[in-house]
Amino acid sequence: MSKKILLGVTGSIAAYKALDLTRLLRQDGHDVQMVATKNALRFLPRLTAEVFTGHPLYSDMFDPACSVRHIDLARECDALLVAPASADFLSKMALGLADDLLSTLCLAATCPVLVAPAMEENMYLHPAIREHRKTLTARGVYEIAPETGPLASGKEGLGRLASMEAIRKALDICLTRNGRWSGIRVLVSAGPTHEPIDPVRFIGNRSSGKMGYALATACASRGAHVTLVSGPTALSPPAGVDIRQVTSAQELENSINQAFPDHDICFMAAAVSDYRLTLPHPEKRKKDGNSWTLTLEENPDILAGLSRLKAPDQFLVGFAAESKLDHKKLLDKLRKKGADMLLANNISQPGIGFSSDENEITMLLPDGSSLCMGKHPKAVLANKILDEVEKVWRFPPRSRQ
Ligand code: C5P
User: Measuring CA to CA, how many Å separate 293 from each of 274, 278, 281, 286, 296?
Assistant: First the structure.
């Protein structure tokens, strides 16, 4: 599988390892184009890099040889791998800065982006760098974790560039993934719904939308076309995703039902309100010294409705937020709703679930099998979920698009 790899090299002492990496990637049959930052060139001999890649090494945005090419470079590559990625460069990527050629390419690239950090342990574990790494992961950037071992300072610690083997393996995963999901049309619902009581009040829930947004991001970074139907959240729309904002369960139902026939797979991650007001007040109700009784009626079960519309090659994934995970009850729910996969999380445990950054998910399939995926950040879980979908769903040969 010969692919075009854009290898970004930044100012870390490990920059010289980019040469070895280039040699191995070329042995694997890939075409490697190197782009180095100004600081990387203090560690990396330009001529050697050009001989190893067989291409000119680009670095300066305003060099006439590459200023016209830089958008092409981003468009043409199958993967952009930044190895080594310095603390400074990770921060730039997270902030979306574009003040040199490599950072500009990182913004322009639509292919999978991987970063292999290399730095001193204190820098890697510094709260600022942790935050930036988290931001990048949530955006779909694949981090190839550094190793523990001797560092440039002479100390032992975490921060050595990942092994060549680990980098090649990660690249392989991203390149294959991209092939599998490329062109697949994914529909994701996320967030809570707000059921109006009157023009200013509503019934809602504590869903943050983070799990659904993480899934939409992970699908998009694997090359899928993603439509995200989102209830009210405080999150920014993920890059490259078609977002449709809704408020109530009825609006969510209309939007999802309209979009579903044009999609191959649907993740119903939204926390749809089970009830709505039978008769919302047209005007804001004023205090009058009396008690106020609200009459609620059940909202339709959107997921169950989709399972009745589902074509044989479509795949439907439901979620369940439970205070106690009971395998038999969950299996009944999965079968009753007619989904192909149910992802259950225990919301009674502190630090996981609805509004937190982490979740603990157990996956159930209609044949009764289950898998506990463990507790992870939602961005990591989203990728684990997609890996499981890959195992059980026969992907359509061509997208419906
Ligand atoms: O029945 P329960 O609310 O636990 O089901 C959760 C799953 O069903 C989620 O996938 C959610 O998006 C979906 N759901 C729905 N319509 C509802 C309630 C939940 O599609 N009215």
Answer: 18, 12, 12, 14, 10
- DSSP strands (E only) in 246-340: 265-268, 275-277, 296-298, 315-322
Mutate to test the pocket of ligand 1, among 187, 309, 337, 340 (most ligand atoms within 8 A of CB): 337
Distance in angstroms (rounded) separating the CA atoms of residues 4 and 397: 24
**Intervals of CATH 3.40.50.10300 along the chain:** 182-392
- How far is ligand 1, taken at its centre, from the CA of residue 177, in Å? 29
Could you confirm whether 257 is annotated as catalytic? no
pTM value > 0.90: no
Q: What is the pLDDT of residues 199-233, one digit of tens each?
A: 999 999 999 999 999 999 999 878 888 999 999 99
Q: How far is the CA of 271 from the centre of ligand 1 (A)?
A: 6
Residue-wise pLDDT for 178-203, tens only, equals 678 888 999 999 999 999 999 999 99
Distance CA 140, CA 223 (A): 11
Catalytic residue among 122, 205, 254, 257: 205
Q: Per the CATH hierarchy, to which homologous superfamily does domain 4-179 belong?
A: Flavin prenyltransferase-like (3.40.50.1950)
Give the pLDDT of residue 324.
Answer: 87
With a CB cutoff of 8 Å and minimum separation 6, the contacts of 12 are: 40, 43, 84, 85, 86, 118, 119, 161
- Provide CATH code, domain 182-392: 3.40.50.10300
Nearest to 28 by CA among 232, 170, 146, 161: 170
b/e for 331-343, b at 16 or more Cβ within 10 A? bebbeebbbbbbb
2, burial (CB in 10 Å: exposed 0-12, middle 13-18, buried 19+): exposed
